[in-house]
Amino acid sequence: MTGPRFDVITLFPDQFPNLVELGVVGRALKKQLFELNCWNPRDFTDDPHRTVDDRPYGGGPGMVMMAEPLVRCVSAIRQARGDTAPVVFLTPHGPLLKQADIRGLSNLGKGAILLCGRYEGVDQRFIDDHVDITFCLGDFVLSGGELAVACFVDAWVRLLPDVLNHALSATQDSFEAGLLDCPHYTRPEVFENKAVPDVLLSGNHAKIESWRFEQAKAYTNRFRPELLEDIHVQAGTTASSKKA
Q1: CB-based contacts of 216: which residues, under 8 Å, 6+ apart?
Q2: Known catalytic residues?
Q3: What is 5-157's CATH superfamily?
Q4: How far apart are CA 6 and CA 8, in angstroms?
Q5: Separation CA 96–CA 11 (nearest Å)
Q6: Helix locations, the chain, DSSP H
Q7: What is the annotated role of this protein in its UniProt record (predicted)?
Q8: Tens digit of pLDDT for each residue in 119-141?
Q9: Segments making up each domain of the chain, as ranges
Q10: Is 129 annotated as a binding residue?
Q11: Which of 183, 40, 65, 173 is nearest to 124 (CA)?
Q12: pTM for the complete prediction?
């Protein structure tokens, strides 16, 4: 196994693989382009009920994932891995996860230890002392971290060599160049009285690429204008650095 290794801490170790076994990621798993291991924190408890949660100090609704089973679980994972892969926690408290974050982590090659949160939250002492990286998928709440972690793994794996059918597919995706992807068309050439843009039928690859770039900018300006602002800020920072 030369690809990244993902060790997922989840209360549903038997069900989690189902979330990543479809499509290109599922095929990549079958081809052993990456490794997936699921760990149940209940296996690292001492009581007969295999308790991993308790009531929050200070009162309030819900339960909180206990620190000790998670610490034991991470210790066992690190011993099995034999490396210093980061512990990643998908949580509303983290910065918004972006494509650049995924690509940066994927360039490290080793993979990650991924915690699927449950209940009201996770004991802050575990987060403070054992979580290396936090991210947030967006301003919404899920019932558990399994879906978020599956999204994280999917976004990472599709960047690996030989996962996508075409090597350029990932590099031309939305966000890779800071823009949304351009619109796409396929057969039939005319559908409900709407024709495919002439430039895409021209065979002139230079014009096609130019059209796609302009369309990507227009789509970004229409749907996610803040991305253009980010590009301008980054460009200005780079220019200032060169002058300095």
Answers
A1: 177, 179, 180, 181, 182
A2: 92, 120, 158, 173
A3: SPOUT methyltransferase, trefoil knot domain (3.40.1280.10)
A4: 6
A5: 25
A6: 23-30, 67-81, 99-106, 124-130, 146-157, 205-223, 225-243
A7: Specifically methylates guanosine-37 in various tRNAs.
A8: 999 999 999 999 999 999 999 99
A9: 5-157, 190-243
A10: no
A11: 65
A12: 0.84
142 annotated among ligand-binding-site residues: yes
181-237 residue pLDDT tens: 889 999 999 999 999 999 999 999 999 999 999 999 999 999 999 888 876 545 444
Query: According to the annotation, is 141 in a ligand binding site?
Result: yes
The tokens describing 61, both together, are 């609704």
Kindly list the strands in the beta sheet with 53-54, ordered across the sheet, starting from the edge strand earlier in the chain.
53-54, 64-65, 121-122
Band of pLDDT at residue 239, cut at 50, 70 and 90:
very low
Rounded to whole angstroms, the Cα distance separating 90 from 19 reads: 16
- The answer to whether 137 is a known ligand-binding residue is yes
Task: Find, among 71, 2, 64, the residue nearest to 33 by Cα.
Answer: 2
Q: Other CB atoms closer than 10 Å to residue 51's CB: what's the count?
A: 13
60 known member of a binding site: no
The alpha carbons of the chain give a radius of gyration, in whole angstroms, of: 22
Reference 90, options 139, 145, 130, 9; nearest CA is: 145
